[in-house]
Amino acid sequence: MLSKHASNVSLAEHLASFVRKEINKGRYGTVSEVVGVGLCLLNEDVARRAVSGSGKGAVRTTHSERTHGRSEA
């Protein structure tokens, strides 16, 4: 069995709304479940990029860029 660790996260309103909608649709039971699935997908993506080498020299999209459409550079 996996150990569980409590953490607090703050979500932008559009992400909190998305999480609520997914729970209301019955796809997930809790906020923790939605966040956990999202983190697993991110972890898989990071590992895949490391293996394929596509992460090398790639431009990293920042959180600000994704949410506000501009680079933090």
From TrEMBL:
Biased composition (Basic and acidic residues): 62-73
Family annotation (Pfam families): ParD_antitoxin
Gene3D superfamilies: Antitoxin ParD1-like
Upper taxonomic lineage: Bacteria, Pseudomonadati, Pseudomonadota, Betaproteobacteria, Burkholderiales
Domain of life: Bacteria
InterPro entries hit by this protein: ParD, ParD_sf
UniProt protein name: Type II toxin-antitoxin system ParD family antitoxin
The species this protein was found in: Paraburkholderia strydomiana
Region described as Disordered: 50-73
